[in-house]
Amino acid sequence: MKKERSKKHRTLQLVRIAIQIFFIGLFIYLLFGTHFSGKDYIGDVEVFFHFDPLLAIATFIASRTAFAAFALAAITVVVTFFLGRVVCGWVCPLGAVHQFFSWLFKKAKLLRPKKVVTGGLAWKYLILIFILISAIFTLDLVGFFDPLSFLYRTSVTGVLPAFGQGFSMLIGLTYNLHLTGLGDRLTQFFETLTINSTFRQGFFIGLIFLGLALLNMFRERFWCRYICPLGAFLGLVSRWNFFKLKVDEEKCIKCNLCTLHCETQANPWPDNAWKSSECVYCETCAAICPTAAITFPVKGAPEKVPAVDLSRRKILLASFLAFFSVPFFRISQAGKRAHEKLIRPPGALPEPQFLKKCVKCGECMKACPTNGLQPATTEAGPEGLWTPVLVPKIGYCEYYCSLCSQVCPTGAIRELTVPEKLTVRIGTAWINKNRCIPYFLGRPCIVCEEHCPTSPKAIKFVMAETKLADGSVATQKAPVLDLSLCIGCGICENKCPVMDEPAVYVTSVGEQRSEKNQLLLPIAPDQPEKK
Q1: Which of 45, 283, 295, 527 fits as disulfide partner to 34, beta carbons 3.0 to 4.6 Å?
Q2: Closest CA to 436 of 390, 480, 398, 394
Q3: Domain limits at 442?
């Protein structure tokens, strides 16, 4: 039989791929644009997140406050309502990445669809229910599953550092081969990218992404089919869209290729089994059809389509799991005392409000010029996993920088001007005299005082006597802290020449955002003086 594949839908398929490449390029452009360029203000590099309705809804429910920038998410909802899940199939950068891996595995013959797959689609809807029910109880878990947060966090902490390491190896190879000119040009180019190369858990976060990518060997677009809660939300919105699939019964030869190769398990054939809420309008079914029997005509009236099997029992189970999970996510010492290493970026909201709004996207970590902002591990408990904390051993808070407050897409970090940021205290520095060179060894060292950025300096000197091992006494200028001037930026800890455990260290006590986490709390209210 002569194949009569639809040229129209094959062209649409190419157009879709071109649009996907454009949005991936835009995502990468904004990703690399999130860095210190020498200017005080960075621009709207986080705008991609503001088109995400799942982030908008979850953070609104959890924090009970609306962030004005998320008004752009209404555009995504309206487009989906009228046109279907075209955002998933044509725009979403993570969806495009998974589609690329699926295509790659097909070409390598690692993915061979041999039978029609059924079931499993309910999982992403149950994840969506879990997230929204948790948000009702002020637990914001959307950042773990939202596709934009997931992709950006992976790119910042895993992909870019690995790329940086590889590029550094390439530069080293060029110099070893005595290609000095090429090495200099590559070095200059690499430095303009300003890639932060050190992240705790970067390997682990990258491994999660790699594992999900490899799942595409078993099911095409595995993430989009079974996990993505944003796709589930848009699927619910898209059920009333204008474009409905139609199979011409006279042309159809019942070869089942369309259903077999459907990227999201929408089941194009038979047409009464087609799931509008699962279709991302990738045009694969129409382009692959050997008789051009599949079209997507405009139908203004709503049409009854098969729904995903979401029984009342499954919905109730997901809701109860969300409800009972909330206290487990909040098992942390923070209820008693703040963790000494939980140093939040300047402008961060008080901890309870911060956790309700932070979506763990990594924007602030990418913007940090010193690589000091890192994904949290245990400092904030399970609820605060992968939220930003300052780790002075890796990088300090640059005194004249407020970029992290400018790029936060949800307002978890309040935007600050540079003059406002200069007065924000995020912690307090301390001196361990048992490790400090002038105090312990009796030798001169003024590194911490030299680097202290405050004016007047928070680190001052006193003359200190040290008894040495031979019985002699050495007198040196030794550092002391003026707690009224220290802002906890961590540069003293970062620059301290004592390598393993710096003699100067910073803790979160005294942070300006907390009334509780202070050095000394009043035991009882002041009593009136007796006459």
Answers
A1: 45
A2: 480
A3: 425-514
